[in-house]
Every structure is written in C-alpha cells, then in structure tokens.
Amino acid sequence: MTARRLDIISCGPSLTLQDRGRPGYLACGVSAGGAMDRRALAEGQGLLGNSSDCAAIEMVGTGGRFTASGGPVWIALTGALFRVSVDAAPVKWRTVFRLQEGQVLDIGPCLEGNYGYLSVGGGFDVPPVLGSRATQPRAGIGGVEGRPLKAGDRLPVGDSDHLPDNPMILPPADYFNATVIRVLWGAQAHLFPAEERSRFTETRFRISASMDRMGVRLETGADPIRTDSGLVAISDSVVLGDLQVPGNGRPIALMADRQPTGGYPRIATIISADIPAFAQLRPGTEVLFRAIEEDEALEALRQMTTMLGRVRSSARPLIRDPRDIPDLLSYNLIDGVVAERDTQKPEDI
C-alpha cells in the first residue's frame, strides 16, 4: 500500500510545520517556538480528531498549491482567512473536507489576519526533535530539515481512526479584529513609575510592519515609555507575550520564536488567551492594552480551553451543491450534508 502524502507543488516563502512547541529547553538556549495562533492550530486538530500534539502547516501572506498522493487526505483550514479552491472550485475557509488523490488544493493570498493553518487527518508524520515537530529555522530544527517548506516537499501523513464522516464547517471566527488586548503587569513593571504604567494602558499602539515569528514592534505618536532607572535590566528568561521596552521607549511583543533571554525591562505580558488575537492583528491596526488580575486571566484561559474541547461538536455539515462536489459518490449524503444551493461567491470566501 502506498503511503499517503501531501505534496507541495508550489508555495510562499514563509510556510513551516508548527505544533504546540517544545517547552522546557530554555536552559539549553532553545525557545519553545510553535504555532503563532495556537487556538487556530487546536481548532484544526479538533476538527480532524487528531491528537493535540499534531503539527500543521502555518502559512503567512500566501499559501501554495498542494496535492494528495497515495490516497485521499482529510484537510482542515483554520486561522487567518485565505482564498482557497480545489480543482478551481471555491472552498469555504474554516472547513474540513477530503482532498482526493490527484486533486489540487490552491491556497492563495491572505485576506484577513496573518497566520493560517492547514492540518491533515492523522497529522504530518515527520520525526520530532526535542519532543516537537515545530520548525525553528534560526536553530535549524524541526519540521523538514529545520527549514521553511518549499516546492517539491512530500509530507507523509499519519494514520487516524477518528476522521470525520463528512465535510464540516466552523462558525466564523470572532477574534480577528481585536481592539483591546488583556495583559498582566510584567516581571519588571515596578521599574516603571505609576504614571508611565497608566500611560501605557491609555495609549493606542499601532502594529508596525516590523513583525515576524520572533516579535512585533509597536508604534505610537505618544511620548516614549520611560523608567526611573533607564531602559536596561539584568538579562533573564522571557516568556511568550512579554512586552519589553527597549531604549527608544517603543514596546516590542515577544512571540513564538522569541530569544530565550532579554535585557530590556518588561512592562507587561499578554495573557495566553489573547495571544491568538494579537498574533492575527495586521500592520496598521491600533490596539489598547488593558491590565487585569491573574484570576481573570486564568478564567479567560479556562474558557478558551473549554471552547476548544468542543470544536468538533460546534461544527455543522458543510452544505454544497452536489454539482460542485467532484467526488460526490464518496460522501455520505444523509442528514442534509448536501441540502441546498451554496450561494457563496468567490469574493465572500
């Protein structure tokens, strides 16, 4: 029997395999890495019935063209909204469907957000490094040879006994155009005078074009954020979402591929539940930071975890016109999976 694969015909320059990351190696100089939007990653794995440690293709800016080899491959598309089609027929985003052998999945430009995810039923069967398949190009580990994906890569797909019976679609995402991001005061917040901390939460910051998997620079027309003792601190470990303030007084949010340690004071830390929303903010977007207490941050994380545990039950059958389904006979059409005309236009995808 031929092993199933997802083959890359062509792709953008910033596609990598990502999972939940590899925590626990900071002492070795290796940051956790992992998906920038872990909510979207978890949604894709949940739709497919995968284990939570499976990896997905993370796409930035544009996707690529893919084809199934060795048999059909179940696909889930989550995260940032991309234009997508199968054999030139438009497909809705936030769906799970079967890509038949030889069919071409075409994922075009990103229309909303920054990071999109392509997950496969059974996960991508590449060897883990330090307990994770997450790609860290700077360290040269994880994924495929520790590098971004490229045309010609053939990604083996694992087996699964928990695949869906029919195509499904999730309700629209509700976290993309966030205007307020919740934070906890950071490890060195005490270095900033009370009036500076107040000004930090009252200032509208703008997401700059200087953003990647390592960090996001914030811009503002307001005066720089200052400390009483200068913007230098003893280097120590940093965490995901830390907002460090360098010498120019403009905060930088530290993201998935952040450095293990930092010497700039951190005024605040984005709460875990809001990292996905922050990661999806496009350059030019304005955002306010709101300081909250730890119990509120824990409750927000609990709510998100509960929601992600119900992803599959929240999906509904994907209604499509039978004439638009090239492999119609391979689907179970019972219970209204195909019941009415799909009126979605390509520009509405």
Produce a short descriptive summary.
The chain contains five helices and 20 strands.
Description:
By secondary structure, the chain is an alpha+beta fold. The protein has 5 helices and 20 strands. It is globular.
Search tags:
single chain; 349 residues; alpha+beta; 2 domains; 11-stranded antiparallel sheet; 7-stranded mixed beta barrel; 13% helix; disordered C terminus
Largest sheet: 11 strands, antiparallel
Uncertain stretches: 332-349
Q: How many structural domains does the protein architecture include?
A: 2
What quaternary form is this? single chain
Average pLDDT: 89
Topology:
Blueprint: E1 5-11, E2 16-18, H1 38-48, E3 56-60, E4 62-69, E5 73-86, E6 89-90, E7 95-99, E8 104-120, E9 154-156, E10 168-169, E11 180-185, H2 194-202, E12 205-211, E13 215-219, E14 236-237, E15 242-244, E16 252-254, E17 261-262, E18 266-270, H3 275-279, E19 286-291, H4 294-308, H5 311-314, E20 316-317
